[in-house]
Design a protein that fits this description.
With about 120 residues, the protein is an alpha/beta fold. Helices cover about 20% and strands about 40% of the residues. The chain has one domain: Cupredoxins -  blue copper proteins (Immunoglobulin-like, Sandwich), CATH 2.60.40.420. Bound molecules: copper (II) ion.
Length: about 120
């Protein structure tokens, strides 16, 4: 096998390994929304230089309160955007803001700050 082919093959394998590792770790960090008695699921995401947890697992078809607890005044995180659900919400500093939505079918939806710098994922199952 020519050296360049070998290089491409090794690079490809390294990429596959990285992708698996990334999604495995991201999956490990995902937090499951807790279900209330009314069938409403709720999860709190801390906003401080990023989103913690950065991945949230929720059930499809059930109303969801996604509570953003913003613990900073840095301008970067003052807005949260969930584009797939048409959400753009101002998050007052040092307050909790609940975004209410009902995720329909399974899928992964990104939530970001207004500039798309901070990122989190809403995993609908
Ligand atoms: Cu930002």
């Amino acid at each position: 096998m020519p050296a360049v082919d070998l290089l491409v093959a090794v690079a490809g394998l390294a990429l596959i390994a990285w992708v698996n590792w990334y999604f495995f770790l991201a999956g490990q960090r995902a937090v499951q929304a807790s279900s209330g008695s009314s069938g409403r699921q709720e999860v709190t995401v801390t906003v401080r230089g990023g989103y913690e947890p950065s991945a949230v697992r929720v059930q499809a078809g059930q109303p969801l309160s996604l509570v953003f607890d913003r613990q900073e005044s840095s301008g970067c995180s003052e807005e949260v955007v969930i584009r797939d659900f048409g959400v753009r919400r101002y998050l007052p500093a040092f307050q909790k803001t609940a975004v209410e939505l009902t995720p329909s079918g399974p899928g992964t939806h990104e939530f970001t700050c207004g500039m798309g710098m901070l990122r989190g994922r809403l995993i609908v199952e």
